[in-house]
Design a protein that fits this description.
This protein has a domain of 49 residues. By secondary structure, the protein is mostly helical. Helices cover 59% and strands 0% of the residues. 0% of the residues are buried. The protein is rod-shaped.
Amino acid sequence: MSDTITIRVSEDVKALMKATDINWSEDIRSYIEARIKALRLSKVLKSIVPGSKRKGSEDSSDIIREWRDAR
């Protein structure tokens, strides 16, 4: 299902749009979808706490040494 939205542009812009071979509906639809994805990503990235550490974080060199010593 889809809905229709309407935008208002000047007569000059409409004339310029008609002078092209661009599918404006598809172009604008794609832009809106990309913009929504970017906004969602931005929201997720802002929710990540800077400097947070994973559980049980250790120095990787210590983990590698332990693994090698166990061999």
